Amino acid sequence: MAALSCGAAAQAGEPITLALVEGLSGPFGNAGEAVFRNLVWATERVNARGGVKLPGGNRPLQVLRLDNKGSTEEALALMRSAIERDAHFILQGNSSATAAALIDALDRHNERDPQHRALLLNYAAVEPALTNERCSFWHFRFDAHADMRLDALTDQLRDDASVKRLYLIGQDYSFGQQVLRRGREMIAAKRPDIRIVGEDLHPIGRVKDFLPYVAKIKASGAQAVLTGNWGNDLTLLIKAARDIGLDAKFYTFYGNALGVPAALGDAGIDRVLAVAEWHPNVGTPSSDAFYQAFRRRFPRPEDDYLHARMQAMVEVLTQAIEKAGSTEATAVARAMEGMAFDGRAKGIPHQGTMRAADHQFIQPLYVTMMKRAGTDGARFDNEGSGYGFRTLRYIPPTEPPSTCRMRRPVQNGATTN
After folding, report:
1. Where is this region: Disordered (predicted)?
2. Helix, strand, coil abundance in the chain, percent, nearest 5
3. 354: exposed, middle or buried (C-beta count within 10 Å: 0-12, 13-18, 19+)?
4. How far apart are the C-alpha atoms of 190 and 184, rounded to whole Å?
5. What are φ and ψ of residue 174, in 5° steps?
6. How far, CA to CA in Å, does 410 sit from each of 102, 114, 298?
7. Do 192 and 272 share a domain, yes or no?
8. What is the maximum alpha-carbon separation in the chain?
9. Which residues have a Cβ under 8 Å from the Cβ of 288 and sit 6 or more positions away?
10. Which secondary structure element, helix H or strand E, spans residue 63, and what is its range?
């Protein structure tokens, strides 16, 4: 475990700990480390301007690394340890199953021990139930959930007349199952002429060779693949597609990072699509400056993984602590509800609102396509690969429906609907 903080504020008051409970080793360690770099940079930027302003004086932010090794049980133990160390803010995202377990445990803890409450800030766990039927006052999601991402991708697929045969593949846990289930429904509603020629759910983080899966996709005659795979499960899937010569488009959630462009090379040009809240080739001066500043901070090509939502998460938390005048979890949660974020004054080309009804961050989305870097709309490449992504479709902030019935704390420590 290591706590990091820097900037002029480091000599001010006691640091405010952001406890990152994430897989920093194992099959998805690269994804966890990429998140860590984003959070380090976000906290450095807050600290460089003086830290978090509180009535007793400014306080810096620090990131506490807690490696759950991809284990939900380990994540639960680390969250308990972090709270015992008086951390009020737990950060996690790379696994919806782990997020669900943390939310349930945090609900019980905060009800049982109101003097030591904590919040869970979620930057990537996108199972829709987490802000619907399983919503919690103590959980805030800063990523678009799976249905929001799928809606954007299937709108693009709806307009792609070349696709008549589609294959679905995903990781066999709650998120991957949701992507396949809702993917079928959305395709049926938007493009009933598309034939789904096959689908697979595979063990998460355990497949070393995707060639058998890709061989099935190729044999099916699919012209496109829709997948929510992330981390090495996506990279290895893409590598297998390249190796077998699969002639199909990939509609992905995360195909613009963590080795995917380099794995495909020229075979991915005009074939790999991804959806995100921001990407390096948005094309505005502020977006360019934001991305170039990150690359100066992390100049190694393999460290190139920047997401505006993670920067927004740290900024919104800072804004909420300052509004509450406290780091106490209940006060910060109430301050965060309904909070509007405009990062432009802080050099972040991103905006959004934390919806009070379900704690889902409402923000824009971009559907992008892989291109050779330097071509029109793709000035910057990804991870030094020579390939970048250009915008195909911009989706303004759109509020999805929610079935959340939020239970909120009242003054005596109990909760109410």
Report:
1. 396-417
2. 40, 20, 40
3. buried
4. 10
5. -55, -45
6. 22, 11, 44
7. yes
8. 66
9. 379
10. strand 61-67
User: Do 314 and 291 share a structural domain?
Assistant: yes
Element (H, E) at 20: strand 16-22
Domain assignment present for residue 412? The answer is no
Q: Which domain holds residue 166?
A: 147-276+363-395
Confidence of residue 257 (pLDDT cuts 50, 70, 90): confident
Residue pair 372/270 in contact (Cβ under 8 Å)? The answer is no
> Pick from 293, 278, 296, 257: which is nearest to 385 by CA?
257
Same domain, 163 and 47: no
Residues linked to residue 200 through DSSP beta bridges, in sequence order: 169
- 194 and 262 share one domain: yes
pLDDT digits (tens, 9 = 90+) for 304-332: 999 999 999 999 999 999 999 999 999 99
**Number of domains the chain contains:** 2
Which residues make Cβ contacts (< 8 Å) with residue 31, sequence separation at least 6? 23, 94, 230, 231, 258
What CATH number corresponds to the domain at position 47? 3.40.50.2300
User: 47 Cβ partners below 8 Å, 6+ apart?
Assistant: 5, 6, 7, 8, 9, 10, 60, 61
Which residue shows structure tokens 């593949």? 169
**314 and 165 in one domain?**
no
Q: What angle do CA 234, 32, 156 make, to 5 degrees?
A: 40
Domain boundary among 334, 360, 386: 360
In a domain, 414, yes or no: no
Are 362 and 316 in contact by the 8 Å Cβ rule? The answer is no
Same domain, 267 and 210: yes
Is residue 417 assigned to a domain?
A: no
pLDDT in tens, 334-356: 999 999 999 999 999 999 999 99
Residues 21, 108: one domain? Answer: yes
Whole-number pLDDT of residue 73: 98
Statement to judge: residues 331 and 382 lie in one domain: no
pLDDT interval class at 416 (50, 70, 90): low
Dist. CA 63–CA 43, nearest whole Å:
8
